[in-house]
Amino acid sequence: MKVDKDIITKIISSDKRAIAKALTLVENDDEGSEKLLKELYKHTGRTSKIGITGPPGAGKSTLTNCLVKLMSDKGYKIGVIAVDPTSPFTGGALLGDRIRMQEVGLLENVFIRSMATRGSLGGLSKNIVEACEVLDASGKDFIIIETVGVGQSELDIAQTTDTTIVVLVPESGDSVQAMKAGLMEIADIFVLNKSDRQGADGVVSTIKNIIHLKPPSKDGWIIDVLKTVGSQNEGIEELFNEIIKHKDHLEKSSYLTIKRKEHLSKKIKELVNNKLEINFWDDTKIRNLNERLEDIALKNKDPYSYVEEITK
Ligand SMILES: Nc1nc2c(ncn2[C@@H]2O[C@H](COP(=O)(O)OP(=O)(O)OP(=O)(O)O)[C@@H](O)[C@H]2O)c(=O)[nH]1
Ligand SMILES: [Mg+2]
Prior knowledge:
CATH architecture of the largest domain: 3-Layer(aba) Sandwich
Largest sheet: 7 strands, parallel
Strand content: 5-15%
Order of helices and strands: HHHEHEHEHEHEHHEHEHHHH
CATH superfamily of the largest domain: P-loop containing nucleotide triphosphate hydrolases
Strand order of the largest sheet: 3-2-4-1-5-6-7
Number of strands: 7
Shape: globular
Number of helices: 14
Bound molecules: guanosine-5'-triphosphate, magnesium ion
């Protein structure tokens, strides 16, 4: 698709149709998307990017909805990217989720998009990071990215957000699970959702104990654990205040600049890897690999020598 100046102007002035079109380009990795992102880059950087992650069914979408409504009432512009789990065991967003999301999506200053992660080998999901850039350039005050915390991609996505909220529930062993999944490492704010259920206070203490055992974060931020009942819109104002507190902390400690530079560095490396990979595997190389595979499988040649040979 051709990228004209018109779409850039429209995105910057927050035109919903233009944003949707741009996100589709980015999602499909369309030829035009890179050109578009080049133009948009200078308009990015004012958005606060918030990641909401946690185990399946913890209430991430419910909390996202509550937060979006609250932020919208306060007059903020919000973008939401709901990352569909591609794992067969969660099976993607439930219909109820989608409908609730669609309702808040109708608000004038809210833009919501559901996206699938591309399993880019151990790296960031490029299309999601790029979608954030589009929303950022469109002048959103906040972008919320909802991901299921079960794998590596969530940790990577956390490395592109300014503030990461980890949502847990009182179910037994959840906090231990979260530790295993590495969620403890990435949290700026912990939320114990479904606090209407039994054992909530116990889990809050457990999480607090685990936080105390961690070395203090290098930017001096102290992680708090908040209780919410998403389904009853309880604790949302407090959660919002904590988000603002973290945002202020990052800005005042100049750690935001450091953090964003780290993210940028990581992103550039990813982009280079991507380019190199695409350029490397041309038809000749793929044909060559297919021809030689049999030989390598039969142990007539080892993969290491082959790699050495083709990367010379
Ligand atoms: N009891 C109780 N139920 C809740 C609460 N918050 C959400 N729920 C319910 O928990 C279920 C899952 O909520 P979602 O918001 O879809 O959870 P999620 O983390 O987005 O789920 P996935 O995206 O599938 O991983 C829904 O049926 C919600 O209504 C809460 O605070 N208390
Ligand atoms: Mg969800």
